[in-house]
Amino acid sequence: MGGRPLVVRRRGAAGRIGPDKVSVAGSSLLAGAHVVGLKMGPYTFRAERRVLTAEFRRGSGANDFGDPFAEYALYYGLGVDAVVTDCPDLTVIARRG
Fold this sequence. Notes:
Radius of gyration: 17 Å
Helix content: 25-40%
Order of helices and strands: EHEHH
Shape: elongated
């Protein structure tokens, strides 16, 4: 196309990765990202049983409230830089400890 070089500008989320949260715990993904200078914000954190990692599910209904605070504690304890959530109010409470 006219011989012009493609120019990629890094803006916004450059320097960050956002993997599915289940791919982070128990893997070297987070440590590897930090080694190369990337920040990590896994997704998606919610309070409903159907979205929580299995160990944090409570109740039997898909929309039952589980233990999102324990899940946040796990990921913040692993060293994630941020989380992607549909429940920012719970995230703020969890982050404050």
